[in-house]
Specification:
about 45% helix; 2 domains; globular; mainly alpha; 17 helices; Citrate Synthase, domain 1; binds carboxymethyl coenzyme *A
Length: about 450
């Protein structure tokens, strides 16, 4: 591309850049604004900026992808400043109020709400793929009694890949479809099995007469009763929480799924990578961290001292702040209302009182206001989950079950995007220049030892 030509991206305006090292000016096309006005330049257009012809060219340096769009996407829209979240154009508030989780999963993948026939068929397919191979039970039984359920879930989803070798045919739409159905169907089963293993309880098989959420609760909680009947308030709360967690644009775990999937590995392996990313306390693990924090505070009277320690940099107020939302997280508003509904059934406890007081103080404190730190979705979800008697370390598993819908929609969108290739960022090397090898240790003779394979 010449230094003044535009590229073929249909750009109508350009960024004029003058390199003060060489005095050369460049015209970099600005991509036409997308639906909601997002604009960008193509990072590759900066490569023409060089001091000498044989140089690599200018890169952008963006640790943690603070200002880098790695794809175009039509799935989820977030306006962090205005506190807007929409799936395929539908406001999260409307979906949370009116849709079901499986309908939302369909919407995320297909871009439109399903017709009745499409929905019935989708629901039927997912319901009839909930069983997992019996060997998965043996696999899970290998874990220790105190294994973290996220480790177990991550490993067992990765293990599923070995049961479905055809899943690697990712270019075949039929294989992609059945893998998506299997993952959505089996995640609740695996999650429930992880729960039962830790408790030392027998695994409960799926009940095809129940809906997605109620069946999950049945596999988690059913004992000797012939038919499980979930508490309607809990079933409703979990359905809404699943919808709220179904997708969230290019967050850490979704980025992981897309990056892993870009190597064209099967979706079971890519989703296992997403679960690993979600496990971290700065991501899906935050709702668990909120409860640990509340436990550590212990009493309302300790809150001011705790807030002061956070302000002094001795830890974070977990469940507050977000990379994207710099006003109230719209999901947090829905979750707070949901928490009110659930607590009407189970009653308010000391921890909820601490949470409410923490929120009140933080929202009126200059430190949090000036940094635009508001409660995020995780601030109240942990309290709801706990009131439903889920153990703390299981909270992120619930998040993972729901987020699988978004990961799969994003994975398929990435695969069908002609502009995508294997994800491979650049680096700015800061290590040594070339130096000669001079070791002071003895290896006991290189290449010696027994042959590793041949006897
Ligand atoms: N408590 C106290 N101070 C905070 C917090 C917090 N929760 N979050 C950010 N800050 C401060 C931070 O120290 C920094 O201060 P300063 O400018 O004085 O150095 C400033 O606010 C900007 O923070 P940042 O680290 O640049 O913000 P980020 O966008 O990199 O981090 C975050 C976003 C979510 C990782 C962070 O806010 C955090 O660690 N929050 C607590 C963990 C949490 O609740 N995570 C769940 C996120 S929502 C679920 C999801 O979508 O995954």
């Amino acid at each position: 591309m010449s230094k003044t030509e535009s590229n073929a991206a249909g750009a109508t305006s350009a960024l004029e850049i003058r390199d003060t090292r060489t005095g050369t000016s460049y015209s970099v096309p600005i991509m036409p604004p997308a639906t909601e006005g997002d604009t960008a330049i193509r990072a590759m257009d900066l490569r023409q900026i060089k001091q000498k012809p044989d140089e690599f060219g200018l890169m952008t340096y963006d640790p943690a992808f603070m200002n880098t769009a790695s794809c175009k996407s039509a799935i989820t829209f977030i306006d962090g400043d205005k506190g807007i979240l929409r799936y395929r154009g539908y406001p999260i508030e409307q979906l949370a109020e009116k849709a079901s989780f499986l309908e939302t999963a369909w919407l995320l993948r297909n871009g439109e709400l399903p017709t009745q026939t499409e929905y019935d068929d989708w629901k039927h397919q997912i319901t009839y793929h909930t069983y997992v191979h019996e060997n998965i039970k043996t696999f899970l039984q290998g874990f220790r009694y105190d294994a973290h359920p996220m480790s177990m879930l991550c490993s067992s989803v990765a293990a599923l890949s070995s049961f479905y070798p055809d899943a690697k045919n990712i270019e075949d739409p039929a294989e992609r479809h059945i893998s998506i159905v299997r993952l959505l169907a089996k995640l609740p089963t695996l999650a429930a099995f992880c729960f039962r293993h830790v408790k030392g309880l027998p695994f409960i098989y799926p009940d095809n007469d129940l809906g997605y959420v109620e069946n999950f609760l049945s596999m988690v909680a059913r004992m000797s009763e012939p038919k499980y009947e979930g508490n309607p308030a809990f079933v409703k709360a979990l359905e809404v929480l699943f919808i709220l967690h179904a997708d969230h644009e290019k967050n850490c775990s979704t980025n992981a799924v897309r990056a892993i999937g870009s190597s064209h590995v099967d979706p079971f392996s890519a989703v296992a990578g997403g679960i690993a990313a979600l496990y971290g306390p700065l991501h899906g693990g935050a709702n668990e961290a909120v409860l640990h924090m509340i436990k550590e505070i212990g009493d309302k009277k300790n809150i001011p001292a705790f807030i002061e320690s956070v302000k002094a940099g001795k830890g974070k107020l977990m469940g507050f702040g977000h990379r994207v939302y710099k006003s109230y997280d719209p999901r947090a508003r829905i979750v707070k209302k949901l928490a009110d509904d659930v607590f009407k059934v189970v009653g308010i406890d000391k921890d909820l009182e601490i949470a409410l007081e923490l929120e009140r103080i933080a929202l009126s404190d200059e430190y949090f206001i000036s940094r635009k730190l508001y409660p995020n979705v995780d601030f109240y979800t942990g309290l709801i989950y706990r009131s439903m008697a889920f153990p703390t370390d299981f909270f992120t598993v619930l998040f993972a079950v729901a987020r699988t819908a978004g990961w799969l929609a994003q994975w398929e969108e990435m695969l069908l995007d002609k502009e995508q290739k294997i994800a491979r960022p650049r680096q700015i090397y800061t290590g040594y220049g070339e130096r000669a090898y001079e070791s002071t240790i003895s290896h006991g003779g290189r290449g010696g030892g027994k042959d590793a394979v041949r006897k």
